[in-house]
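## Example record

The block below lists the input lines for one assembly entry, exactly as stored, with component labels intact.
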Amino acid sequence: MIIDMHMHIDDIPALGWQMSAAQCIERMDEAGVDAAAVMTIADLPGINPQALELIADACGQYPGRLFGFIRLHPWYRQESLKLLDQAVNEHGFRGLKLHPVSSLAHPSGEDTIALIRRAGELGIPTLFHCGDEPMTTPLSIEPAAAACPDSIIVLGHMGGYFHVDEAIEVAERHANIILETSATPYPAKIAEAVERIGAARVVFGSDGPVSSPVLERDKIMIAGLSPEDTALVLGENAARLLGVPA
Amino acid sequence: MTIDGLVYLGQSRFGYGLEADELVAALDRDGILAAIVAPTHRPDHDFDRANVQVGQAAAASGGRLLPMARVDPWDGELALRQLNRAVEEFGARGLMLHPAEEYFRINDPRVLPLARRAAELGIPIVVATGYQGFSEPVQLTQFARACPEVPVILTNGGQFNISGLAQTDAGLALQLDNVFVHTSGVYRDDWIALVVSKFGADRILFASAAPVMDLRYELRRVQLAHVPEEAKVLMLSDNVTRLFGLNGTPS
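Predicted structure tokens for the full assembly:
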């Protein structure tokens, strides 16, 4: 079973951000991906007030294939906490997405910590955009991992282009950190991550549909992992995190 | 036929390295005919020696490796002489500039004499692009505008952001006719398709940037791109052949 831990659906014509559930499914089929975590590009509350319903409808349209992550803006703490509860308890969302570039909320800020802790209480992981921009690097996110040991934190892109070594180091220090492989162009670093933190803490993601899930899947194959580790990275770990049968 | 538009050859002071025999083995493994090779920044900072080594490795490769010269603009007149020597003695087919590793700003006026010399020598310039403060795509736009007579090839699709946040800036650079981009590290498939549809398939070329990036993975990036097959032919071989004057490459 192959599960993509990082795909996007949104509908904001003003920004040119229109990615549909059907596009995700088409890309998933192209790559032999069975299921995917899907999330918007913009935060709630924000520019697309229908974001929760958009993701919930997409998941309802493709049951067993799309699993919702709610993307929230930490500065609206009380409203975001309420939306998080609603997304999980009423719509069956499986994760929280945070993107400090779009929200400008630092990962170690009190509002962000409150959301991550609530996600942990709800039994869902928090997926961070983790790249090279200020407030998104592994060392910027590390204090949040330390402050929320009972919450799973997934570093999306595992440090991007220039911070992959730091992502692995941070994951070595914090057992609640998972590394997600989308977009970063270094298959050898995926193999190194598996070696250093264990295959159970590395998950496949594509950041599709604008990127190629086929190519991102091939990156895992090029990493040259054992068949057992490949199975964990490509699907079994995500199944565990999302609470779906492997 | 596939030609890799950029591989770094030799040991770098920044920790990476690839030797000629390893590269040729990798080219054989992945069915790649030839590669444009640029020297790394060596631990001894001696660019002339690095150019000689790469030139000699290329000469011994039977046409599999095609050399570029690499110089440091901070070396002034010395860099100009090194560029001349690499072209005249070792047949360098391009000039590699790496602003981040040589610590200069690509749009610093002090770089322009090298650009003018490259134009006189009839060779393109490859710039390691996307490094903040050194080679941002808008800085490349200014540089390329100042030397319209020479092709300027931007690595990494012209930007280096994991969300593609500088893609619009890279698009501004591509509005100049003398700007081209490599496919190395461009994780957004829609950006590759957009460059082809908006700017033309003759403006983008396959390059692995190995060993900084992974040769096999970067080749797959182009093979899987959602662009017409004729565009892939241009990306994989025809564009690099045209830009670097490789018509003598064995096929």
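The domain at 3-242 of chain A is CATH 3.20.20.140 (TIM Barrel). Residues 70 and 196 of chain A are 30 Å apart (CA to CA).
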